[in-house]
Amino acid sequence: MAWNIEVVNECAVVRMNTNKVNMQNDQFFADLHGAFDRLEREYGDLPVVLTGQGDVFSAGIDFQYSFEIFGSGSQDKIRDWYRAYRETNLRIFQYPRPTVAAVNGHAIAGGLITALDCDFRDAARKQPRFGLNEVPIGIPMPAAYVEIIKYTLGDKVGALATLRGKLYEFEEAEQLGFFHEVVEPAQLISKAIEYAKCITPDCNTAYAMSKKALQDGVMRQIEERTGGLD
Known about the structure:
The structure is a single chain. The model has no long low-confidence stretch (mean pLDDT 93). This protein has helices at 26-42, 63-70, 75-93, 110-116, 143-153, 155-164, 170-175, 188-196, 204-229, and strands at 4-8, 11-15, 23-24, 48-51, 56-58, 60-61, 99-103, 106-108, 120-124, 129-131, 167-169, 181-183. It is α/β, with parallel strands linked by helices.
C-alpha cells in the first residue's frame, strides 16, 4: 500500500504505512521513494510532515531482511543494501522544503534515523522508547548515519547515542534534545504543521539554498567516508 499523502492546512502530511510498525525493508524503501516522487510531482511547493501510525513511528530495520543479506557473504548484496539505505535517508535529509517528523510513538534504530533526517522533530508525550541500538546487536553504523546523527544531535549526544546504544525512555530522550518540541498526542499533527510552515511559499528558494549550505559539510563527509567505511 502506498503511503498516504493528505494536504492539511497547506502542508503535505505523509503517513508511513508499509506495515504495522513501519519495519524498514525493501518495500519500505520503495514506499518512501514513491511518496517523495509524488511530493515532488504533485506537492512540490508544500512543506512536509512525516508521521507513523498507532504507537509506532518506525521500529527500524527489518532484521530478517537485513541479516539474510549480511549473512549471505555476498559483497555485492551488502554493498547494495548500504547504498539503498543511504539513498532513502538522503531522500528525506536533502528534500528542499521544510520537513518535520511528527513522532507519534516508538522510533528505534533506523526508525529514529528517519526522524533525524527531518529538519524538525515534534513528539507526542506518550511512553515510547527511542534509541540507536545497532552497535549493541552487532550492526556497524553506516557512515551516512553517523554524519546525520552528528548534524542533528551534535557530536557529544550523537556519540553517546550511537556507541552506548541505549533505548531511552521519553523523558531521557527529551532531555538529550532528540525533539524540538513535545506536545500532547492530540496536538501532534497541528504542531508539526505549524513547524513545517515556518516560511511562506515565496521563500522556498531561500530555504532550499540555506538548507543546502548548512548540509554541505555533512554531504562532503558522507561522500568521502561512505566508500572507505561502509
